[in-house]
Specification:
GO terms for molecular function: hydrolase activity. Keywords: Hydrolase. This is Alpha/beta fold hydrolase. β3, α1 and β4 form a beta-alpha-beta unit. α1 packs across α11, α2 packs across α3 and α4 runs antiparallel to α7. The protein has one domain: Alpha/Beta hydrolase fold, catalytic domain (Rossmann fold). About 45% of the residues are buried. It has 11 helices and 8 strands. The chain is α/β, with parallel strands linked by helices. An 8-stranded mixed β-sheet has the order 1-2-4-3-5-6-7-8, with helices on both faces. The longest helix has 26 residues.
Length: about 325
């Protein structure tokens, strides 16, 4: 899981619940869409706070950046039913979030032009909704982002897969997830938290974690819906390789639309997917490849300055 470097959002960040056609989602929202809007999906056991250090630099670069707690995560919550967390349901959530952000951007655009047009109802795309959304998914969030694009690439201006690989996670992480799946039916969330801390990979160890961050991560874990953890853990263990399918979906071949730009970004080491796997995936996708030196599985939290610059540079390059 990502460990936020701090918790108090910069003054430019707005925390609220974003209304969509599929319910409300807790978000951190920063910036205005001068150059575009980005939707940021966190990974397994993660939350919007995983991107907290990226929001201000992305806003300064001209992008509206919106980080979200997905269904079943932290402050969004969700049903106590495993069917609610299928790949189809989570992909539909991402599409609904993108649509809601497009509608917000339409209102901002109209307001900038002196209009006071009301926000159109969900499902009604205004004539100005050509402002598509840059989609980024970290780790599990990357698999969900991939599903959303495979379902409908129309709302998206680009796709960034951050520390998210082509198929199932590494053998060591599969072992960890299987232990979690065995524990969920018989242990409390608190008992699992204590046990999982003992199994953290060496890369995750950091005795300098501020007490408030450590307490937040504990609180966040307890707030996750168990059924969400169960379904997404099973997915990380058994995810098929869909890279060729995605490559076909983002390609311009046989379509009257331009290719959808793709960015594969990671740290220089990764315990969930080996970096050479990510290199190969980028080649298969014809994607821009960025390696953030000195970062591990969470460059968003570990090297936010370099990561934000890489993201903004990529997004800017897609609008030329």
């Amino acid at each position: 899981m990502s460990k936020p470097p701090f918790l108090v959002p910069p003054s430019a960040v707005r925390a609220y619940r974003l209304d969509t056609a599929r319910g409300e989602f807790a978000v951190h929202d920063a910036g205005v869409p001068r150059l575009g809007t980005a939707l940021l999906l966190p990974g397994f056991t993660g939350s919007k706070e995983d991107f907290i250090a990226l929001l201000e630099p992305l806003a300064d670069a001209g992008f509206r950046a919106v980080a979200v707690d997905q269904r079943g995560q932290y402050e969004t919550g969700g049903p106590r039913a495993e069917a609610a967390y299928s790949r189809t349901e989570l992909a539909r959530d991402a599409l609904a979030l993108a649509e809601a952000l497009q509608q917000d951007d339409d209102v901002l655009h109209d307001s900038d032009n002196g209009s006071h047009a009301a926000n159109p109802p969900h499902g009604a795309r205004s004539a100005q909704s050509a402002r598509r959304v840059h989609l980024l998914g970290h780790s599990l969030g990357g698999l969900i982002a991939r599903d959303a694009v495979l379902r409908d690439r129309t709302p998206f201006a680009s796709l960034t897969l951050m520390s998210s690989g082509p198929a199932a996670v590494s053998a060591s992480q599969q072992h960890r997830l299987k232990l979690l799946l065995g524990a969920l039916p018989v242990m409390t969330a608190e008992e699992i938290w204590q046990a999982m801390r003992e199994l953290d990979p060496v890369e995750a160890a950091d005795e300098t974690t501020p007490p408030e961050v450590a307490e937040f991560m504990h609180e966040r874990w307890l707030a996750h819906v168990p059924e969400q953890l169960s379904v997404t853990a099973q997915r990380l263990i058994a995810e098929p390789d869909r890279v060729d399918e995605l490559a076909a979906a983002v390609s311009a071949a046989g379509s009257d639309r331009p290719a959808l730009p793709v960015h594969v970004l990671s740290g220089s080491v990764d315990y969930a997917w080996a970096v050479p796997l990510l290199d190969d995936m980028a080649v298969r996708l014809g994607a821009v490849r960025t390696v953030v030196q000195g970062a591990g599985h969470s460059p968003n939290a570990e090297r936010p300055g370099e990561t934000a610059r890489a993201m903004a540079d990529f997004w800017s390059s897609t609008s030329g």
